[in-house]
Amino acid sequence: xxxxxxxxxxxxxxxxxxxxxxxxxxxxxxxxxxxxxxxxxxxxxxxxxxxxxxxxxxxxxxxxxxxxxxxxxxxxxxxxxxxxxxxxxxxxxxxxxxxxxxxxxxxxxxxxxxxxxxxxxxxxxxxxxxxxxxxxxxxxxxxxxxxxxxxxxxxxxxxxxxxxxxxxxxxxxxxxxxxxxxxxxxxxxxxxxxxxxxxxxxxxxxxxxxxxxxxxxxxxxxxxxxxxxxxxxxxxxxxxxxxxxxxxxxxxxxxxxxxxxxxxxxxxxxxxxxxxxxxxxxxxxxxxxxxxxxxxxxxxxxxxxxxxxxxxxxxxxxxxxxxxxxxxxxxxxx
Amino acid sequence: xxxxxxxxxxxxxxxxxxxxxxxxxxxxxxxxxxxxxxxxxxxxxxxxxxxxxxxxxxxxxxxxxxxxxxxxxxxxxxxxxxxxxxxxxxxxxxxxxxxxxxxxxxxxxxxxxxxxxxxxxxxxxxxxxxxxxxxxxxxxxxxxxxxxxxxxxxxxxxxxxxxxxxxxxxxxxxxxxxxxxxxxxxxxxxxxxxxxxxxxxxxxxxxxxxxxxxxxxxxxxxxxxxxxxxxxxxxxxxxxxxxxxxxxxxxxxxxxxxxxxxxxxxxxxxxxxxxxxxxxxxxxxxxxxxxxxxxxxxxxxxxxxxxxxxxxxxxxxxxxxxxxxxxxxxxxxxxxxxxxxxxxxxxxxxxxxxxxxxxxxxxxxxxxxxxxxxxxxxxxxxxxxxxxxxxxxxxxxxxxxxxxxxxxxxxxxxxxxxxxxxxxxxxxxxxxxxxxxx
Lengths: 334, 438
Known about the structure:
The structure holds 2 protein chains of 2 kinds.
Chain A lengths: L1 H30 L8 H11 L3 H18 L1 H10 L1 H23 L3 H30 L19 H28 L3 H32 L1 H7 L4 H19 L3 H23 L10 H4 L3 H29 L10
Chain B lengths: L1 H50 L2 H35 L1 H11 L1 H22 L6 H30 L5 E3 L2 E3 L3 H5 L4 H29 L5 H13 L4 H9 L10 H7 L6 E2 L3 E3 L2 E3 L2 E3 L2 E3 L2 H7 L5 E2 L13 H32 L6 H29 L2 E3 L3 E2 H4 L6 H31 L1
Antiparallel strand pairs in B: 1-2, 3-8, 4-7, 5-6, 9-10
Helix pairs in contact in B: 1-2, 1-5, 1-7, 1-15, 2-3, 2-15, 4-5, 5-7, 7-8, 7-9, 7-13, 9-12, 10-12, 10-13, 12-13
């Protein structure tokens, strides 16, 4: 029963990375779009693409938090207590990113738009970095089960934490560039699509290199994870690499809709590979699922809520994405 | 590091409580608007659709621009709370997360539906037919009310915990359904939802009362004032009666809280009702006294026995002055707002128009911040009244707090961030203001 909850949780975290992550990545491209004049069209495209969807995509984060604290309360308390520094940074990053984005949309003066835009873009880079760093801390087993026993700095300021942070920023910006290609082309902005395509290729290659180098880092820093990633999880890792290469080819031939699927699957494979690599330990090297899971009396109604909620959620999300994956005036399938 | 943690512990409690109070006290205002504003906007849009006029539809559209900003800051200021639950109170979440987590999971889905349809509604004006567009706003209203319900279920559990057994200081045999529907749930959830609608009504009306006072008397401005102001009127007496009943927003207020709310120091038969005043050295000074009033309010008879603060051991009493004055502020403001609603009702009944006096509009301007203050005071009553418990009579706040160093820095950064956030939110909303009233 705890396994069922974990599947829902991991599906939710995957959705957060694929959708919410791409919204963060779009912020990075906003940051490097150039001067106010030269970057204006890119920024408009980014704002147009993430505007209607970012709030919904953001809810996956809250979803993940509440599922963990209900189903695996001791793991939640341990993670939050030890990783208070990076996770407080994440919380502030979330606040800055969302509010600055909304503020920028609501003002017209160039100076104010620049200010809010900078806050939005910077926090879009900082937030995934700290989330990734927290992930690295968990994966390398540096979050002790006992609350108050962890080191609030050295738990994440280490090779695995930095690797997690860099990979997270890379994956987010890669996904964003890939998704934006099709958005730009559909709006008839082929020159922008070309720009995003170049960035997607560059980021895809970079993330691939960092991931490979990362395996060497894990060999030193997180032996259990390394052993399982090169053992039981190896097929998933190969699948991810193959999908990543296929995405580069699809980008080269400008198959922008198909590459969305392969890029998303490549990232999904990384996430599920990590899950397999860590299984059944919730905190990297310790606290197995059986120890941490809430009693069945809690899990049973939780699964009912998750199943019912998903049945409501999926059609609503499809409606949202369907509506804004077309330009105004197109036939809307509502 | 261990030494440092042990040394940091007592002050950690203060930093953590202030951090929680600031971020939750901030979020609760935008959260109220998130619950109450969508129905106001939809009513305007529906009126526009039915009458085929552009005034109401334009009003809805301009309100929606302000709502977009409020929803965004509401979503992100709510997120930090989920983090803080664990970062600040690992003792609460680790020990009891599974007991009262279910309403949060439900709230998560309600929030999903809200966020999805807000996206569709706000960006769908030119993509959907007017009727369909109105329909896409409906889930926002329903989900907003539901998420308020779920999250207050969790809060009411902290005030009236049930659905588990304590064995050796650990919660076992959790029953999340029983925890969610505890005795405090019906009253607290209704009270909060009505308060949210009241706050929105007065706050939005206050903004437009400023416009009316400034001489903008177009039909749009009048409707902009009347829709929110009217809409909360039939609800308001209910909210007020609820908070009067026993002076408590729940069936069984924690004993210390009841004593605190009414500044009732000794347990006595035929207790007086105290309005205002401060407890100094165990005696209430400067209060307006209504003889036997408290016994009458709580039980319906003038000679009932009322447990006072002395019924609670000294180390389990809340700071009574804070609770008492906050409670009186809430009730007093509630009555003043009720009177203001009565003034409009009278004028409307006689002449189908706003009261002619400019003092009415001035009062309506003041009513916006006053409604927010009343709501905040009510929240202070509940939260401070429960102290020193985080889960009433089960877990002390001091035992739930994170012992890790660094919480002080978190608080200082939070103060800076929220100051900036408040300034920017107000600035951006004011910039939308002139557009909204032109």
